[in-house]
Design goal:
The protein is an all-alpha fold. It is 87% helix and 0% strand. It has four helices and no strands. Helix 1 packs across helix 2 and helix 2 runs antiparallel to helix 3. The radius of gyration is 20 Å and the shape is globular.
């Protein structure tokens, strides 16, 4: 009987991990479509927005992971990156779209904190 429960437990753990991995991949693939639908932008514009955000986030992660910097120093180094990202995004998005994108980012951060 114990062997059966062990097998069931292992099988359910395996399927849970497999399902969550598929959800993650699906979620990542939907980011572009979500942008296109939410902001009413074209495929090319969505690619540009995602590229700008990816570049900026990579730079931000580098700063935030630098253990030699204090929190205040990290914030100071991040300011010009945030401003540059906003400036670059303004070439592709109007004010309303930019505000909606910022709202979506805030919501994603909140969801990530709650997980």
């Amino acid at each position: 009987m114990k062997k059966i429960f062990a097998i069931i437990f292992i099988a359910s753990a395996f399927f849970s991990v497999s399902a969550s991995a598929q959800t993650s991949k699906k979620g990542m693939g939907m980011a572009k479509q979500t942008l296109m639908d939410s902001l009413k932008i074209s495929d090319a514009t969505a690619d540009s927005v995602l590229s700008i955000r990816q570049t900026s986030m990579t730079q931000m992660r580098t700063i935030m992971s630098d253990q030699s910097l204090s929190q205040d120093q990290k914030k100071e180094k991040a300011k010009p990156i945030k401003q540059e990202m906003k400036t670059r995004l303004q070439k592709f998005l109007d004010k309303d779209q930019l505000a909606k994108l910022q709202g979506m980012e805030m919501e994603m951060r909140q969801n990530k904190k709650n997980q």
